[in-house]
Amino acid sequence: MRMLKALLRAVWPFVLLMVLLRVVYWLQVKGEAWFLAPGMDPEFYTGWADAILAGRGGDYLPFPRAPLYPYLLAAVRGIFGTGWLPPRLLNLAADIITIVMVFRLAERIGGIKAARIAGLLYVATGAAVYFSGEVLMASVAAALTVALVYALSAVWNHPSLFRAGLSGGLLALAALCRPNILLLLPLSAAVMARRVHLTSPVKHSALSTAGVHIMAAALVLAPVTIANWRASGNLVTISTQGGGNFYIGNARGATGWASSLPGVGAAWTENDARRIAEIDAGRELTPVETSRQLWRMGWREIAADPAGWMRSLLKKTLLLLNVREVGNNRPLTLATEASLLLKLLFAISLGSMLPLTILGVIYGFRRPETRAAIMFGVVFSGSLLLFFVNSRYRMPLVPLTAMMSGVGLAHLTGSWRDRRRLLRDLTVVVLGVMVAFPGWVGGDFTRPAQAHFVAGNALMRIG
Fold this sequence. Notes:
This protein is an all-alpha fold.
């Protein structure tokens, strides 16, 4: 309890600044039609949440997308009502959790100076501020990610069955926001077992710890998987969206960043995806069969042009690390034109923090917190490259990037008197800049016509 009070005393200025920046941004854009009316994906989630509140949640079975956020949104709308504010309060609560975890993890790795820098970086990261105002799961996913990394590092620091179970449950919750996080489960269990094997005199405790970790994840996932099975008669662990996203990200001509369904465009629906899959299959398909057919179509696209796919994979890798923020079906220009604050804050991004992140990883590598962050980052990034990359999908990596950047910058500012160390640190930073800052992936991700289209649709929705 004393440690928690000390943490809250240290982090409260960052929480206050975080709330202030987000409220200022919300007030700047509050009169914008696109902010008041949901876009395509926000409209999908609000429709799903309203169906849950009306007792029609079964209409969305098997789950077309990860279901945690729609149910959280339904709870918020049920308590606070409709309108633009309740979902933003949910995002704000998630951001408060994130900043506390980022501060604590950075402090454990690099001390209080690193924690303060990391906290300030995350508070002022443009993407984090922007997504706090969107009816999307990005803020919730970021909070669950950093909580998961904290829980995994806690097991490696002080192994116990309780901590193993808690980390497994958090992993499953994070996967209910971003299903590709589930790919981390076998690796986290294996690393956990190895760590316990090296530190515990009891031979069977390593398998017990890994088993509890996996079982806790399975228990959290079980209601979702069972509901999908009852609705479809097929084993669907979380959702059926994977096939469509895989096809979008790997079809020939894919941009690597735009959610544009081949043959339909950016404004596609689940029915459009099913129609394309049914044409390819030559018969009617269920939602589960549609996803599987789109997976097959995606693999065929890769096999038809492997060299082009490799070029696309390289482009997506550079997009993941790039300094610029890339919007999805809601153009970021709508927000930056309405908010000078956000336009300035977009200078702080995953890519602009990358050079310092690399430095932080080097200096903090021996710490379990750093290794847990690296393990998550590698698995999540690798799985993300199988689909497509934009700011929304790389958000789970942002708090970890801010955390390690704080460690890196704290060490860099402490190396001025050691010329050899300073030269080494600056070399690492320059190499990071060479990866993140140049326009390796093209010059422009804005679509003025799409921005007008989205704004026009919003105006129509609010009459």
